[in-house]
Request: fold
Amino acid sequence: MLYHILYEFLYQGFGKYISALKVLNVFGYITFRTALASLTALTTSMALGPWLIRKLHDFQIGQHIREDGPKSHQTKAGTPTMGGVLIVVSILVPTLLWTDLRNPFMWLAVISTLAYGAVGFADDYLKIRNRRNRGLSGRQKISLQILVSLLVGAFLLYLMHRHLYSAKLTVPFFKSLAPDLIVDRFLSTRLFIFAYLPFLAFVSLVIVGASNAVNLTDGLDGLAIGCTVIASAALTALTYITGHRELSRYLEIQNLPSVGEVTIFCGSMVGASLGFLWYNAYPAEVFMGDVGSLALGGAIGTVAVIIKQELLLVFVGGVFVIEAFSVMIQVISFKMRGKRVFLMAPIHHHFELLGWKESKVIIRFWIVALIFALFSLSTLKLR
Reply:
């Protein structure tokens, strides 16, 4: 909104007549607006945090702690949850203030975040109402997540037919390898729907996987949100490069000019996450809940799909991937062998039970997340 007022209306409309307005030219730069969005998100989160925590206390919206977890966590019972509402608001408000509101990719990221946040909100609400650590059933939660991801995929197909998007994958380390997820041989037949199934399935796998991976990581104070700061910062750089014609050409990755505005969304995610970390850092004053973790994971997955870095997301969100795989390995091992690989899954609890202090687990996982993020950026040249 402010972009249209300050840049399009004032600068482009009156800048050539009023020299003082020429300074507003800076609002035309995505980098400048991304910085403003990050600061706006940080300020919003920091300012609204104390008020939200008080309201959550007033409404007695407290976290129920699983009884089979580390015993030290039982002291956290009753800590306000659903703080993810603060994250979502702090992302969306700056995004809408500083982006070009006509950009379809920006709206896709915003709506996907809201939709996954709504699924998490329903899950959190049921947990609080039932006064136990169970909300939506696993089947209900996954079904809703898949539905949202398929709608995201369908909209991307619409944008592809408008020549704004590509269904070709960007494969890390390989410049010339770019497999197309659209099966051309079905396009001219009555079975044309099958041409799009691989793409829709892949989009669903990436977004739903990212959403649940962040959700599984959210088990220690500041762990998930700290890793989100790092991952979203890497995505900010990747999104800017993808939307920049010269940089994308230099690095030989797909150039999608219209996705540049999504950089501002990613910057908002960095600022909002930093602001929430202030209150969620150990010992946490508030938990994000599923409304926060599912929304953040959905946002990260959606951005990765938009900028065609779905495969690189494995490195961008390396800690999230490790956490998710630790749960999968634990479940498969127990069902097939009757034995557990880890003392407890997700893997951050394994290290707690080994005797690591919670704060040590958190900081070391942040370090690992940073290493993964830096490696993901380095792959742009290792091609």
Summary: The mean pLDDT is 91. The first helix runs from residue 2 to 14. The CA atoms of residues 348 and 357 lie 11 Å apart. The radius of gyration is 21 Å.
